[in-house]
Amino acid sequence: MEHVCGRPLGLPFDKNTGDLYIADAHFGLQVVGPSGGLATQLVAEVEGHPLLFTNDMDIDEDKDVIYFTDTSTSFHRRQFMPSILTGDKSGRLMKYNRSSKEVTILLRGLAFANGVALSKDRSFVLVAETTTCRILRLWLDGPNAGNFEVFADLPGFVDNIRRNSKGEFWVALHAKKGVLQNWAVSNPWVGKALLKLPLSFKKLHYLLVGGKPHATAIRLSERGEILEVLEDSEGKSLRFISEVEENNGKLWIGSVLMPFIGIYNL
């Protein structure tokens, strides 16, 4: 495992224009031209209310649309722990039409809406529900268009999802789930009670996750089958990873807490 510094992962480029699109947790959906400079804001509010926690996106250049998530309509980025502990289910998956500049809400009631990834043939889009540790699939085309289902149940807090050139999906797990996570999902009062106690963020985080913090990356098939699991069980190289991007025989691994990017040779 190599450690390198660099720009954050998860900033999709439009292959046709070279524009860089940004899901900014505080300022909504933005874009920067290929020459750089100040970002232009595309979406700052939906249904008359400001976006509080824009999270991830994927671009369909053929249909000229962007699929993106808003983690919560009640909590900001800095309040991600209360969002999980209270079982908040106000997250949304949305579609932004770049031509008409219209936003369509595709799914509501998501528990910490997070990573987004289109299938290779663009027939469905995946969205991560971090709190429930699962990935949902929304069909965009075909006989099931408009329907959604559970694509994969995973053993930890799902963060971003990235498709590789084969059409498979790499999933980053922020951490393994603990016993407290199951209680918080089924009994929101448990999490609310914990938030009232004089516990530090570090202590709450420790109670929520299971075992020693470490990195786990999972490769899924187009049908949601687990094909490969990479795990640094001792957390010696990486912990709390947020994204796994496959490119030219390497995995580029980002983290929301570690101050570097990891590179893993496949």
From TrEMBL:
Annotated GO MF terms: hydrolase activity
Family designation: Belongs to the strictosidine synthase family.
Protein name listed in UniProt: Strictosidine synthase conserved region domain-containing protein
Entry keyword annotation includes Signal: yes
Localization annotation: Vacuole
Organism: Rhododendron griersonianum
Presence of the UniProt keyword Secreted in the record: no
Start and end residues of each Strictosidine synthase conserved region domain: 55-142
Annotated Gene Ontology cellular component terms: endomembrane system; vacuole
Signal peptide: none
Entry keyword set: Glycoprotein, Signal, Vacuole
Source superkingdom: Eukaryota
Primary localization: other
